[in-house]
Design brief:
Elements: H1 5-15, H2 28-37, E1 43-46, H3 54-63, E2 72-76, H4 85-90, E3 95-98, H5 103-151
Parallel strand pairs: 1-2, 2-3
């Protein structure tokens, strides 16, 4: 998110080598509309937007469950000790980079968030697979109990080993 087209273009050029889909937002309102439609690995947020303060955008993002944990990286021309940055960190910004940006550093930080997002997705898939396997195991155990019951074979108590 940046209200200056030249800054958005520079970000796209810097991040293009990562091969990720980038979503551009030139205003706070546009950014808020974009996060309604999809999830992001990381959000790059300029604090000084034309229509809204970046902290206000961040505050609204954090009010939505879907975006509560999305990492937000602040990009600003302000010094790292600037008092304007403190509210952003209180609202959950995870990092800060001062403009002009160092392309390799920005790519490394964004890559880290993308990799984290991919690992989280893989973990969710594994959890779903474990849940499915657990459900199938429960079904198989019930079916076995029914078969044993029908054949007169005693059904062991579930807490006791056979």
């Amino acid at each position: 998110m940046d209200d200056l087209p030249a800054n958005l273009f520079a970000l796209e050029c810097i991040l293009a080598p990562l091969g990720q889909r980038l979503v551009r937002a030139a205003s706070g309102q546009e950014a808020l509309r974009r996060v309604l439609d999809e999830d992001f690995a990381v959000i790059l947020l300029d604090l000084r937007l034309g229509d809204m303060n970046g902290v206000d955008v961040l505050t609204l993002l954090r009010q939505r469950e879907r975006n509560r944990r999305t990492p937000v990286l602040i990009l600003s021309g302000m010094d790292g000790d600037a008092p304007e940055l403190q509210p952003a960190f209180k609202q959950g910004a995870v990092d800060y980079m001062r403009k002009p940006l160092v392309p390799d550093v920005l790519r490394d930080r964004v890559s880290l968030f993308v990799e984290l997002r991919q690992m989280q997705a893989a973990l969710r898939r594994q959890e779903q697979q474990i849940g499915e396997l657990s459900r199938r195991l429960d079904e198989a155990e019930r079916e076995l109990a029914v078969r044993r019951s029908a054949s007169g074979t005693p059904v062991p108590h579930p807490e006791r080993a056979e």
